[in-house]
Amino acid sequence: MTGKARRSRRRWSEEFKRRVVAETSAPGMSAAAVARRYDLNANLLFNWKRRYGVSARFLPVEISEPGLPAPRASDEAMESSISGALSIEITLANGHRIAVKGCFDSETMCRLVRSLAGL
Q1: Average pLDDT for consecutive 10-residue bins of the chain (119 residues)?
Q2: Which residues, including other chains, have CB under 8 Å from residue 39's CB and lie 6 or more apart?
Q3: Which domain holds residue 86?
């Protein structure tokens, strides 16, 4: 015997599952953080989210004309090296900020946003 106690299967009430799933909808809260708080496997929490009809949230998006927003000091050096290239900047509700200058793959960008948003 290795000395490790075998963990028994835990059971949760429907009320608990719904409450935990609801916490993942709070602004700035990720499913992974909620799972850690309750010592749950994140995959189990995602299964509960599907079961109780909680789908991905849409985040607010602001589209502006190129050149209108004033660049921040940290962005100026990057802009000087890349002129006339495509750019995208996304600020998530949880505070993560993604800024991409130049060409990018939309599928990779979607996976990155989902990961940082905790979806």
Answers
A1: 70 90 82 90 89 66 60 48 62 78 76 76
A2: none
A3: 73-117
